[in-house]
Amino acid sequence: MNCNVAIVWMHDYIDGELPREDSLTLKQHLLSCPGCRARFEQLEKTEALLSSVMAEPKGQAMTPAASAALTDKILKQIPPPARHRDWTGWIRRHPAVTAAAVFVVVMLASLSPTVNNGSELIVRGDDLKQVVIDGHTVIVPEGVKILGNLTVENGTADVRGDVEGSVTVIDGSLLTASTAHIAGQSRMIDQLLDRFWYKVTQSFGNTP
């Protein structure tokens, strides 16, 4: 399994949206790839940290005990500085902001390998049996109906038939014929910031 594919799958796995067969493939890759395994563990820790922040009752002031507990969780995610420890006081006074900053750093770190090195075509979807792949072009032929979403990374999505879901193109282009029908959204994600917000919305999409 390619590490770039594993990085994308990690977020879907944490969100509980990765199919069972793909989950098994990802787990096997993590067992054999120390780098991806370390990244996955870091993402899991960040997800747990954010969940604890979002679980706090809205509209209520945080008690000193709860604030101290949350700060301890955050500080465990941040390596202790060798010098200039004065800023730790600011962290203790702003635990929620610190948690958000940790999340941003981890998300950008997880995106950077894909942005810098990702040239391999990646195709994901719920129904890919009738999809035609020609080089870096992913074709939904005319008269064909794809059930569910379609995601194409580092390539061109050429939609001529029906997609009963959303089409997302990351670092590529989207072509739609006059015969094409896309039931959901059509999204083009080209810049690093766009990719970041895409990952954020995917991470929080299932949060009540």
From TrEMBL:
Domain Putative zinc-finger, first and last residues per copy: 3-37
Protein name: Anti-sigma-W factor RsiW
Lineage of producing organism: Bacteria, Bacillati, Bacillota, Bacilli, Bacillales
Organism (species): Paenibacillus albicereus
Family: Belongs to the zinc-associated anti-sigma factor (ZAS) superfamily. Anti-sigma-W factor family.
Cited InterPro entries: Anti_sigma_zinc_sf (IPR041916), Znf_put (IPR027383)
Transmembrane segments: none
Listed Pfam families: zf-HC2
Gene3D superfamilies: Anti-sigma factor, zinc-finger domain
